[in-house]
Design a protein that fits this description.
This protein has 93 residues and is mainly α. It contains five helices and no strands. Helix 1 (2-16) packs across helix 2 and helix 1 crosses helix 5.
């Protein structure tokens, strides 16, 4: 997960002006790094482009709204990186 985390941290730092030194695997994207929803869309777009995946934001938000996934856990970088890795290893549609 280290390389995924490092790449995501770099994306966050460049798209939102958060110093990379402030970003840890336990950082909550919105609470700790103060990234708002519009900035997160920029981050997600760069993640899509960099990892050659499509982050299913709508599906993830539905799961949060339904209570299937905790909102506080969903935006922890460690968990976000795990989800990116799952998307990368998933068979192409």
């Amino acid at each position: 997960m280290a390389s995924t985390f490092e790449t995501v941290a770099r994306i966050i730092a460049t798209t939102s002006d958060v110093p990379v030194e402030r970003i840890t695997p336990d950082s909550h994207v919105m609470k700790d790094l103060e990234i708002d929803s519009l900035q997160f869309l920029d981050v997600a777009f760069e993640i899509d482009r960099t990892f050659n995946i499509k982050v299913p934001l709508e599906e993830w938000m539905e799961k949060i709204n339904e209570g299937a996934v905790s909102a506080s856990d969903a935006f922890i970088l460690r968990n976000l990186c795990r989800n990116i890795e799952k998307l990368q290893s998933a068979p192409a549609d």
